[in-house]
UniProtKB/TrEMBL annotation:
Keywords: Membrane, Transmembrane, Transmembrane helix
A biological process term (GO) from this entry: transmembrane transport
Lineage: Eukaryota, Metazoa, Ecdysozoa, Arthropoda, Hexapoda
Protein name, as recorded: STAS domain-containing protein
Subcellular location: Membrane
Superkingdom in the source lineage: Eukaryota
Length: 245
């Protein structure tokens, strides 16, 4: 916001300061530059905590010094927007495990007490699913599945459960990716279930006619409910039919 206001000042309000004596303008510039130059102290902190912010700081600073203030600020805004877009481009995908004696499922790579359910691969997708990251999502899931199938020490995977609770939106091309995944898994005699779809995502799947080819019987209100279903629990079947999605 402050950068945008400063750009407006430079482009439209700047001419009103033209009649001011050069010494006054020099004093304003020196005062402004003093504060900006003192911000160099913030760079090591930004670089340690979040390197992306450090890169944006350096690019903006160098652009302002070497080119011009308005151009440098514009470059900083563009780089910031580009970094935000790239950051949200690919969703996070993790394997979940069950905390013993609970119905809670957490990331195995972060919580060592979470244990993978035998013959079930639970995957959580966090972020948006759209045409730009379809190949990433598919390749990531394929990689996780291949790793499980190649591990001879583990029982053969019979079911894949995808936790959709953190999926903020899904477009028609991504729903087709899920259908293709279900078909590929079926050829391997592996069943696909979806869990915890938000109302918004569920409506998007409906509009893309996803459920004309994917049975809603494999859509569950919780990961635990889906896992119980894969293990043949009649309680899971009853719960999944009574709990609204």
């Amino acid at each position: 916001v402050s950068c945008s206001i400063l750009v407006l000042v430079l482009l439209f309000i700047g001419p009103f300061f033209e009649p001011l004596p050069h010494c006054v303008l020099a004093g304003i510039i020196i005062t402004a530059l003093k504060g900006m130059l003192m911000q160099v102290k913030d760079l090591p902190v930004a670089w340690r905590h979040y390197r992306r912010d450090g890169v944006i700081w350096i690019v903006t600073f160098v652009s302002v010094i070497l080119i011009d203030i308005d151009v440098g600020l514009g470059v900083g805004i563009i780089v910031s927007l580009a970094s935000i877009i790239l950051m949200g481009q690919n969703p996070q995908i993790h394997v979940l495990g069950n905390l013993p004696n609970t119905d809670i499922y957490l990331e195995i790579d972060r919580y060592h007490t979470a244990l993978q359910v035998p013959k079930v691969l639970v995957i959580k997708i966090s972020g948006g699913m759209h045409f730009a990251n379809n190949s990433f999502v598919k390749s990531k899931i394929d990689k996780l599945l291949r790793k499980e199938l190649e591990d001879v020490k583990k029982p053969k995977i019979k079911n894949v459960v995808i936790d959709m609770s953190a999926v903020i939106f899904i477009d028609p091309s991504s729903s087709q990716v899920l259908l293709n995944l279900a078909n590929d898994l079926e050829k391997l005699q592996i069943s696909l279930c979806l869990a915890k779809c938000s109302v918004h995502v569920h409506e998007q799947l409906k509009r893309s006619e996803f459920f004309t080819k994917f049975s809603e019987d494999k859509l569950f209100p919780s990961v635990d409910n889906a896992v119980l279903y894969t293990q043949g629990s009649s309680l899971a079947l009853q719960d999944s039919s009574n709990v609204p999605l």
